[in-house]
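Bench log, entry 3. Co-assembly request; chain sequences pasted below exactly as received.
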Amino acid sequence: MDHTPLPAPSEGDDELTKVHPNYAHALRVQTVFAAIPAMFGALVAELALRDLDVLPPGLIAGTALLIAVLLVIRIPMTRYNARGYQMGIDRLRVVRGLMFRSDTVVPFGRVQHIDVNQGPLERFFGIATLTLHTAGNHNASVSLPGLGEPLARDMREAIRAHIRRETV
Amino acid sequence: MSETRRTAPLGILIGAIGSAQNAIFPAAAAGVGSGIGGAGLLIGLAVGLAVILIGTAFSYVGWRRTTYTIGETDIRVESGVLSRAARSVPYERIQDVSLEAKPLPRLLGLVAVKFETGAGGADDLALTYLTNAEGERLRQLVRERRDDEAAAASAADPDAPAAPAAAAETGEVLFAMGPGRLVTFGLFEFSLAVFAVLGGGLQYVDNVTSMDVWNVDLWYRWLKEQGSTVATLGPYAQGLAALAGLATLLVVGSLSGVVRTLMRDWGFTLTRSARGFRRQRGLFTRTDVVMPAHRVQGLVIGTGLVRYRFGWHGLSFVSLAQDDKEQSHVVAPFAKMEEIAPIVTAAGFRLPGESTPWHRASKRHCTDMAVRDAAIFVLAAIPTAILAPAGLFLIPLGLAVLAVGANLYAWEFRRHAIDDAQVYATHGFLSPRQEIATRLKLHSVEIAQGPVARLRGYATVNFGLAGGSFAMRGVPLAEAHALRSQVLGTIAATDFSRLDAPAGQALRSAQSGFSANLRAT
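Structure output for the full assembly:
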């Protein structure tokens, strides 16, 4: 049993590049959309219980609103801060997750195909999602959302150029 | 050279027999439905005949409209009665060719030929029912084509014949299981599935007859009639009866395991041929699969709770192709390690040895797992202590102690290692499962951490492996990063399109002469 530690890692955590600030805005809009049904439910509950006169008026809807506002202010920034990437000469590193951290590296030499996707919200904010597909079952596709749209296209070109160089 | 052919005409007969099976129920329903008697019987017969006729007609038209073409670069199948479908598979994308003969086609000398491309089960190319000779010829042809293509692509010496690969078709037998071994294997495959079948049968009886088998009262009454005699026998006899019941359960379970194993693995033979590995098995349904050696992405050596104690292991190849219902190809289901070793070497892999630098999982990981599992039972003990009769809460507490023990034991198996060419990982609860993969054939590396893992400084390292999964659990964070940078160094150095080259080099030691072909694949 060999307990000597392996050589020190070459990549540090401080070199991560942040994604586009608009990603936080897009996340905020998403959170608002997600909060709407919950708010609606709280409003219905409030109206239904008004006649019973057991709770002070506005307690349910007020609490729900407070939680929703807190989430809308807080969640997008933490999620934005948790994301990062690192574009190397021959590999892309993608870091994500608040509670469950995941730190994935995909070498360009193993990329099967590349997607650049934009949803309606992403188009509005001028950002895009870059997705790298590999042949492995785990991490068959690694996606990196929140890149500026021109940057996403540039990165795709760079990765494609690398694959081409390798195969010629 | 291209030729368009039809599948074997005898296939129509199989379609007809299949429709006769389908006809039984409608015929019986029609017969019974129109009243028992002369007329009902006639109507039933007529309905049955009609179903058989229609089924046979469909199977005939289907046969007429299905053709396959062996082309220059691909194999094409056109089928469909009303809507036509044409599928083309290039030779170089075929992962393996398998011949399967179910009992009925086997009697008629027919096989189903499947071409695996790794695109996932349903999307593969299948030709149902060619004659044995035609199936074998097709397989040979596909192999030669691929060799031709490789030779042409390498263009080193275009005149060199692609014959040696085909000539070396009948290779050495790497592993075979005789009846004795199969019975031993079957005893370890203890299964109570037969009781599930019996349960299904009872349900059926319930539906068909008016007897309500799920009615407790009925059985209770029956038991009381019978049981009065049992009750008079006294406690010793009752204990004996219980023991006998348990023994019956054991015997039935072992027997059904043996029968299932005999049916699946009868005549199991693994041969090393020039192009790869060939596996034949099956008592009634005979299958014959060829796996190219350079397509093997990784190895899994599994074992079982009991069989591990007797030194039995099973070896599977991880590849893009799927095996029946399983993800990997089983190449040695039940073997001693010294029998597995030559197969591993033939596949171009190396078993971990004395010099393998094994690392254990983090001790903190072990502690956390034990605490987590014990906590579940301790939490269960609280309501039990409050609600259940006194003393019963000791059961979940005992289970909690057991969980801690099992986790401490599982930690023994949780190890990982890396050397210059391969990565190794073993894990398992009460018996180890060992995974081996080539560093070069990995596709991505992920370091994943849950909230507890982040707090305690360890991580799971997930490697992207084509056709399977490969993970090291509970690796200390610094070590995880070091592992990743080492593996990535190997991966990034070689492009995906050149992946097969080193496999060719590895093979050269075993089979010289066609590594150039392999490199070009």
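Residues 306 and 426 of chain B are 18 Å apart (CA to CA). Confidence is low (pLDDT under 50) at residues 154-168, 502-521 of chain B.
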